Amino acid sequence: MLEIWKDVPGYEGFYKASDRGNFVSCGRVITEIHGSRAAVKTYPGRLILPLIYKTGYRYITFSKNGFVKRYRAHIVIAKIFVPNPYNYPEINHKDENKGNNAASNLEWCSHVYNINYGTGNKRKGQSQRGSIRIASSGENNHNSKLTENQVKSIYYDIRTLKEIANEYSVSFSLISLIKRKKTWKQVTMQLQ
Question: Residue 114: enclosing H or E segment and its boundaries?
Answer without folding.
Answer: helix 111-116
